[in-house]
Amino acid sequence: MPTQLEEARRQEAHANASTTRHTRIVVTHYGGPDELRVVEEERPEPKSGEVRVRVLAAGVALPDVMMREGIHPETPKLPFTPGWDLVGAVDRLGDGVTGFQAGQIVAALPIHGAYAEFVCLPQHELVPVPPGLDAVEAVSLVLNYVTAYQMLHRSAEVKPGQRVLIHGAAGGVGTALLQLGRLVGLEMYGTCSSRGAPVVSDLGGIPIDYQHQDFVMEIRRLTGKGVDAVFDSIGGTHIWRSRKALRPDGRVVAYGLTGSLQGGRLASGRSGSRHRFRALAIFGVYIAGSWLLPGRKRVVLYSIQTLMRLRRSLFRQDLIALFDLLQQHKITPLIAHRFPLSEARQAHELLGKGGVTGKIVLLCNGNR
Ligand SMILES: NC(=O)c1ccc[n+]([C@@H]2O[C@H](COP(=O)([O-])OP(=O)(O)OC[C@H]3O[C@@H](n4cnc5c(N)ncnc54)[C@H](OP(=O)(O)O)[C@@H]3O)[C@@H](O)[C@H]2O)c1
What we know:
With 368 residues, this protein is α/β, with parallel strands linked by helices. The protein contains 11 helices and 17 strands. The chain has helices at 4-17, 62-69, 135-155, 172-184, 197-202, 215-223, 238-244, 272-292, 304-310, 312-327, 344-353, and strands at 21-27, 36-42, 50-60, 86-93, 105-108, 118-122, 127-128, 163-166, 187-192, 205-209, 227-232, 246-254, 261-262, 265-266, 298-301, 335-340, 359-363. α3 packs across α4, α3 packs across α10 and α9 (304-310) packs across α10 (312-327). The protein is globular. The model has no long low-confidence stretch (mean pLDDT 92). NADP nicotinamide-adenine-dinucleotide phosphate (NAP) binds next to α2, α3, α4 and β9. NADP nicotinamide-adenine-dinucleotide phosphate is lined by residues 61-63, 66, 143, 147, 167-168, 170-174, 191-193, 195-196, 210, 233-234, 255-258, 302-304, 351, 354-356.
């Protein structure tokens, strides 16, 4: 006798096979969460070398919000489907694809396009997910944990016992940095609002309330000389303040533009393209300034997509290492909320309001 779950899966598979349509989220104008439209259309067909993936879970993150607003450096031309990261099942193979089989669970970082029931991706972009992992936990690793892992080990090259300051420590990347930093044995300080302080403490960090405390003064008071590394997700002039929290030979890893948003919307009146240009120019000035000024305090830029394009093997290697840590229960991604794909707008509204601890995930194709 099939169990209830097996019967439900059989019925879903039958329903899936009997339709050729799927749901996808589309942005046709840059702007607020209302710009996320649900469309029904024919499923895409894989081209030669591509695999069609039936998406089970797609991550929601601030870079998606920034693309929706048109301010992220990677913002695609309109219309586009958001969604940096996904976990799904191999559904159909294009001509010439080898090494994958139908039903196999895979992960990918397409940068945009993951808010859909079916996506076609080049086979070299897919990373097999080890059996037995939960799709929601697994998708939390693809963007946030790879970012955190590569910044810790490849950009800052942290050593046990070093001191680090993590901005936005209660957020998606912030909680990943705390969990991975604890494994290395770092002494960690994390800026957050008062709502995030308990999570930061639970994960081994010393919270600094960014809304009521001056983090540079707090770091000086708590550490004396300053920290070995700062992970700055805020961007703009904040990067220079982060540099002031460093000890000599320390490093600011600048990687985000959270300060460009207020309440999940574009904080300035500048157009998206002007905003992108200005943000990149500020990064450039601070990186150059940090090398020219005395004090041996460097600012370096980290971008997951740039490193992935330059050396895809590192992305694959680091994601596999993280799947391994998840299997061994050495890391436990915090899942803030799960929404069905059709509620992408509500997911963006929630992320924009702030105070979310951990990852928001969209569930697709009946996954729970
Ligand atoms: N370069 C890369 O490769 C890369 C990859 C992934 C993400 N990112 C960037 O990383 C950043 C974080 O992304 P995420 O998905 O982790 O976002 P998230 O989950 O929304 O977390 C952002 C956190 O920042 C906090 N925050 C807001 N303003 C702050 C301030 N002035 N000081 C300190 N904390 C502040 C928020 O706290 P409250 O809500 O409590 O105020 C929230 O906990 C974004 O800028 C994103 O674009 C970059």
